[in-house]
C-alpha cells in the first residue's frame, strides 16, 4: 500500500472533524472521496501531507509515518503533491516560474534546470504556449493546470486533489478533468475530493462517502452510486445525480 491511514482522529477544539478513519490506497489507484460539506473530506487530504496535525492514529505514505517527530517535511511535500481549490499561484511570477519555484526551493536545483523541467510539465498539461503568461493573463482552468504542473514537477509518488474544479466556471471544468484523466491513465496514485460524479464513475477505482468525519460507504464507484447501503448516502446521491 502506498497510502495507509489507521484510525485517524482529528478535532478542531471540540469539533470532531475526522472520527476514526482507516483506509488503504494501492499504487496507481484513484480513490475518489465524496460527501456533504463539512464531512471531513478536505481535512482528510490535509492530514495525509501533514498540513494539519492529527490527534491520534497513523498516516503512512510510501512506508513513512508522516506525523512522526523529525519528519523531513520538504521531502514529504515533494512526494505528496497537492492541488487546491483556489490555485495558490504567485501573481508576480509567470506560469513557468510558478512551476519552477518548488524545484528551486525544495530540491535546490539550478534555475536553468528548474525552468527546463517546468517547461516539460507545462507542456504535459497543454500550456507550452502560456509559459510566459502571468496568472492574471490566464483563465481559471489554465491557472489550475499550472498548479497541477507545479505539483507534478516535484515528481510526487501521490497526488491529492481538493475539489480542483469547484472554483471554475462550468465551461472550464472539462480541461482540468482531462488532465487528471491522463494522469490516471499513466498510473499516478490519486486521492480526489470532488463533486464531479461523472469523473468519479469513469476514472475512480474506489470511492468513499464521508459524513460527520467517518467513512460510511466504500466500494467501486458504480456500486456505491447504484446501491448505497446507508440512508445518508442514498439521500446525498439522490440530490446530486
How are the secondary structure elements laid out?
Elements: E1 3-12, E2 15-25, E3 30-34, H1 41-48, E4 56-61, E5 64-65, H2 73-79, E6 80-83, H3 95-106, H4 111-124, H5 140-153, E7 158-162, H6 170-185, E8 189-193, H7 197-203, E9 206-211, E10 214-219, H8 221-226, H9 231-240
Parallel strand pairs: 3-8, 3-9, 6-7, 7-8
Antiparallel strand pairs: 1-2, 1-4, 4-5, 9-10
Helix pairs in contact: 3-4, 3-5, 4-5, 5-6
Describe this structure in words.
By secondary structure, this protein is of the alpha/beta class. The strands form 2 sheets. Strands 6-7-8-3-9-10 form a 6-stranded mixed beta sheet, sandwiched between helices. Strands 2-1-4-5 form a 4-stranded antiparallel beta sheet, covered by helices on one side. The longest helix is centred in the last third of the chain and has 16 residues. The two termini are 31 Å apart.
**Biggest beta sheet attributes:** 6 strands, mixed
**Uncertain runs:** none
Proportion of helical residues: 25-40%
Element-level helix/strand string: EEEHEEHEHHHEHEHEEHH
Mean residue pLDDT:
94
Oligomer: single chain
What value does the Rg take, in angstroms?
Answer: 18 Å
Number of helices: 9
Strand order of the largest sheet: 6-7-8-3-9-10
What is the overall shape? globular
The tally of beta strands, per DSSP, is 10
Structural class: alpha/beta
| Cα-to-Cα separation, first versus last residue | 31 Å
The amount of beta strand, in percent, is 15-25%
Amino acid at each position: 500500500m502506498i497510502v495507509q491511514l489507521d484510525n485517524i482522529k482529528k478535532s478542531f477544539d471540540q469539533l470532531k472533524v475526522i472520527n476514526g478513519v482507516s483506509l488503504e490506497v494501492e499504487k496507481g489507484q484513484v480513490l475518489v472521496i465524496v460527501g456533504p460539506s463539512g464531512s471531513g473530506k478536505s481535512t482528510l487530504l490535509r492530514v495525509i501531507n501533514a498540513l494539519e496535525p492529527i490527534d491520534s492514529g497513523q498516516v503512512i505514505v510510501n512506508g513513512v509515518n508522516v506525523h512522526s517527530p523529525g519528519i523531513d517535511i520538504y521531502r514529504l511535500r515533494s512526494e505528496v503533491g497537492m492541488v487546491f481549490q483556489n490555485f495558490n499561484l504567485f501573481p508576480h511570477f509567470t506560469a513557468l516560474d510558478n512551476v519552477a519555484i518548488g524545484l528551486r526551493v525544495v530540491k535546490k536545483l539550478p534555475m536553468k534546470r528548474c525552468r527546463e523541467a517546468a517547461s516539460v510539465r507545462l507542456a504535459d498539461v497543454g500550456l507550452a504556449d502560456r509559459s510566459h503568461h502571468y496568472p492574471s493573463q490566464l483563465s481559471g482552468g489554465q491557472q489550475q493546470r499550472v498548479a497541477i504542473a507545479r505539483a507534478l514537477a516535484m515528481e510526487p509518488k501521490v497526488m491529492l486533489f481538493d475539489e480542483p474544479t469547484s472554483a471554475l466556471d462550468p465551461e472550464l471544468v472539462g480541461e482540468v478533468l482531462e488532465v487528471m484523466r491522463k494522469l490516471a491513465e499513466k498510473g499516478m496514485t490519486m486521492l480526489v475530493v470532488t463533486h464531479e460524479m461523472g469523473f468519479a464513475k469513469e476514472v475512480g477505482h474506489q470511492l468513499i462517502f464521508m459524513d460527520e468525519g467517518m467513512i460510511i460507504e466504500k466500494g467501486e464507484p458504480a456500486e456505491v452510486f447504484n446501491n448505497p447501503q446507508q440512508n445518508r448516502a442514498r439521500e446525498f446521491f439522490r440530490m446530486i445525480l
